Amino acid sequence: MALDSRETKNTSTPKTQAHAASGSVARSSTQSGSQGANKSVAVVGGSAAGLLTASVLARQGVGVRVYERIETLEPAERTLIVTNRMRTLLGRAAEGSIVNEIRRFELFTDGRSATFELKQPDLIIERRALIQGLAEEARRAGAGLELGRRFHALHSNGRGLVLEVERCTDGSREEIHADTIIGGDGAASRVARAAGWSPLETAPLVQAIVPLPKDMAPDTARVWFVPQDTPYFYWLIPESPTRGALGLIGETGPETRKLLENFLEKRGLAPVEFQGARIPVYTGWVPVRRRVGQGSVYLVGDAAAQVKVTTVGGIVTGFRGALGVAEAILNGGSSGVLRKLRRELDLHLLLRRSLHEFQQDDYSKLVDLLNDPAKQSLSEYSRDEAWKILWRVCLSQPRLILLGLRGLLTHSRSLRPLRGSRP
Ligand SMILES: Cc1cc2nc3c(=O)[nH]c(=O)nc-3n(C[C@H](O)[C@H](O)[C@H](O)COP(=O)(O)OP(=O)(O)OC[C@H]3O[C@@H](n4cnc5c(N)ncnc54)[C@H](O)[C@@H]3O)c2cc1C
Prior knowledge:
- The chain is an alpha/beta fold.
- The chain has three domains: 28-74 and 128-200 and 282-346, FAD/NAD(P)-binding domain (3-Layer(bba) Sandwich); 101-121 and 202-280, D-Amino Acid Oxidase, subunit A, domain 2 (D-Amino Acid Oxidase, Chain A, domain 2, 2-Layer Sandwich), CATH 3.30.9; 348-409, no CATH class.
- It contains twelve helices and 19 strands.
- The longest helix is centred in the last third of the chain and has 20 residues, at 336-355.
- The protein is globular and about 65 Å long.
- Residues 1-23, 29-35 and 416-423 have low confidence and may be disordered.
- The protein binds flavin-adenine dinucleotide.
- Residues 44-50, 67-70, 75, 78, 80-82, 150-151, 184-186, 190, 205, 207, 275-277, 279, 301-302, 307, 313-315, 318 line the site of flavin-adenine dinucleotide (FAD).
């Protein structure tokens, strides 16, 4: 099981062992077993990606402390949809956060609709419970958790790195030594800025918690393509038989909120609360490591834009980034998990570039073309397996390739280029 502290270290082969599928990352047997244990790692950001990295490293005997600015483990609530892969990656740490399962998607555009079933259900999760579960696992694995500590700055002192951290209660500062720092501090990562990465492009994501419409089954998610409002889409995901989250990814914050309010009004849905934040837009791979003096700085999750830009989902890809960074630290730099993640994120970028150009006519054709064999492909694979989905859908419905190519060739709407990654 991914975060089971009873799991033993695997040193049976000379090669790096990284099992993203089971969430376990083991040190290469060519590494000295005690080497990592003597190193100190500071993780900034006690959320999804930072906590998973801390757990995996701590379980391998590395001394890890997590510095999180919020003072109690009560992060903002957020209803999220993720693929079933999260279960495989996290094991029991996932279970407490799952509030519902989605077995069907309904797509709408301009009076048309298409429905497809999922073979593996998607999961609706509650972010707060997820973070609390991960924090529990990290503690159990031996990681220290320092709440109410805001990272300020870092510098090298010749022996390693020094983090300047502010206590949120009284504003006092402390300096902490670490050989390695991991920035899991989100889209506006201060660690990334301090270590010299440039800022990420971000997009506003706003969602409203609403009563579930009477005609909607609680195991079905809805997606609306309305290209005059957004190059992304609106979604409604049920978190229970009576409530759901209806959201939108937009281009500017105030406009996105306004569009969402109009959309709710048209459907007669009264928002119970709003949730929102800016999320990074993946415009190209962000190298996850930089040397600073004698030490190393790594980025995980949103801080490294490890977000699928098709759907702007960052939970599962952030976990994969966390496993990859832990693997790279344990094995002296290389990580197969990170290579696979990069390929996957690049493919999502390619798909997004095409979708970004879609006009109403294209979406209408897309929904019409989602004939049975294509729908079968969407059901068989999880949304994390974009390559396989793309391949199967194109084989079953070649006209979709033409639609996609048209989108790529007419490339005019503003999604920054693939090459726009940071150094
Ligand atoms: C409304 C909304 C809905 C979303 N829906 C989905 C969805 O359905 N599916 C999906 O996969 N993704 C979704 N996402 C994206 C997903 O939530 C993020 O990709 C994911 O939470 C990123 O996790 P993270 O650990 O990298 O960063 P974050 O969750 O952003 O965590 C960063 C942590 O760092 C801490 N921190 C920041 N600065 C400092 C500092 N200076 N010192 C100390 N600590 C600091 C913060 O307090 C926070 O705990 C959604 C996002 C939003 C906003």
